[in-house]
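Help: read this over?
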Amino acid sequence: MSLVAELHAERKARLLRLGFGPKVPPAPLPEPPAIEPAVEIEPAKDLPQHDDERDWLIVASANRDFATYPFLVQEIQRFVAKRFGMKRTHIMSPRRSPDITLPRQIAMFLSRSYALQSLPEIGRRFKRDHTTVLHAIRKIERMRAQDPEFNSKISALEQELEKTHAGEELS
């Protein structure tokens, strides 16, 4: 037997001793017992079914506690879009032009402050990732700290948004 064959045989024996032998397929698992449904649940008949987002907003805003959740993200989007002279769909669009990006970032900043929702939830409402929302919040905070004029504009937007919470309708 050659030296290479001896070394190969020794290595194979050592691996077998250590438990690295040929792979043996595991035994098949027994069939799980059949599970029968305990009770069949019927959908509630008295609850309205809403497919349209606008209908959902009406129901959600009628049922929410204004002290805990002052605004919905959609309301803030609509508010910011109106103040910047655009449609809400523009704020949610994938476009990255500065005339759309800044209002979108302001809306994300206000949503975090007034909608009291998580970053991932705000991101879903803007069709964005939560890290994009975090970037927008940090950018607006940085711009407010650096530019007093920008800070006063954002403060005016916040005051106007709070006035709408006091009783006036968001449009």
